Amino acid sequence: MIVMKNVYKKYPNGVVAANGINVEIDPGEFVYVVGPSGAGKSTFIKMMYREETSTSGEIIINGVNLATLRNSRVPFLRRQIGVVFQDFKLLPKLNVYENVAFALEVIEESPKTIRKKVNDVLALVGLAQKSRMFPDELSGGEQQRVSIARSIVNSPKVVIADEPTGNLDPDTSWEIMRIFEQINARGTTIVMATHNREIVNTMRHRVIVVEGGLITRDEYEGEYSYES
């Protein structure tokens, strides 16, 4: 599903955020990406959906080589990838239903298909009764559920989550993680950057540790730990 081969990323200011990364992630895996602040894990995540481009090396997502992908094709790539952010990134003037439906409207799905898909994912994340509410009427956890619903409404093969519980209280974080577990159980690959030690150590999955732009540990059912 995801392959990185000898990936380097050097920013214009000279910072090396990826220093020869090699990794493979299989379909259906759930992977945590952990590491100290400034270690390169955000760059690692962002390169997967072409928010950042590598300086050299190959990044292949679902058979697509991001290194040779034309910029005009990036929107098509992102339709195959769901992305969940720490700060939700909802459209404030659209209600819950409209925020999720927007992802389908841009690819010109039929109104009938949009209704079914949106209602299905809102039921999955427990927001079927709040579809007409606006983001500022929701709690942080509910806003993140909308963000997750939007990320999976296209039935992507992979969901990339960048600190999805970072702005949430502990109880809400566990609720959000249970939703991710349900999504993964349906066969979707999940790659999640997180600082939440308790979640990583309790809900055991593969752990990739990024430090100094390198993968320093890659362990199945691993724990949250690193040297720095």
UniProtKB/TrEMBL annotation:
A molecular function GO annotation: ATP binding
Cell compartment(s), UniProt: Cell membrane
Entry keywords, A to Z: ATP-binding, Cell cycle, Cell division, Cell membrane, Membrane, Nucleotide-binding
InterPro entries to which the protein is assigned, alphabetical: AAA+_ATPase (IPR003593), ABC_transporter-like_ATP-bd (IPR003439), ABC_transporter-like_CS (IPR017871), ABC_transpr_LolD-like (IPR015854), Cell_div_FtsE (IPR005286), P-loop_NTPase (IPR027417)
Any single GO BP term: cell division
Entries under Pfam families matching the protein: ABC_tran
SMART domains assigned: AAA (SM00382)
Transmembrane segments: none
Key word Aminoacyl-tRNA synthetase present: no
Entry annotated with the keyword Cell division: yes
CDD domains in UniProt: ABC_FtsE (cd03292)
Subunit structure: Homodimer. Forms a membrane-associated complex with FtsX.
Annotated function: Part of the ABC transporter FtsEX involved in cellular division.
Protein name listed in UniProt: Cell division ATP-binding protein FtsE
Organism field: Sporosarcina soli
Gene: ftsE
